[in-house]
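Hey team,

Filing this mostly as a record. A colleague (T.K.) asked me to run one chain through the structure pipeline before their review meeting, and I want the input and output archived in the tracker in case anyone asks later how it was produced. No errors, nothing strange. Just documentation.

Input sequence:
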Amino acid sequence: MKSNELEERLIDFAVQIIELMNEIPKSKAGKHLSGQLLRSGTSPALNYGEAQSAESMKDFIHKLQLVLKELRESFVNLRILYKAKLYKNKSTLIFALKENNELIAIMVRSIQTSQKNLRS
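Output structure:
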């Protein structure tokens, strides 16, 4: 996957998260989790954009690790929302979980490849 394709996917994921926020109930738990998810779910696209201007390969890898960290936080948050049934549309949440999981796998592989290239 090319970097611009991955960036576009991360942006699309951020938009999915924003749209999902409108579906989460305004209960105390819903407000808490949606606030956290808004931050962690939109952050990967922003951090990936910053990684594109990394000053070194080590800096690039570090920024990718931040993207991965935020994606993992988002994934756990989405799982909590799912298990607590804090959603209006189950299929929207399941789609976000699937995409989040795929982005995690892509990011893990990107970090591994970058680390291998750094050692070469």
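Quick notes for T.K.: The first helix runs from residue 3 to 21. The chain has one domain: 3-119.
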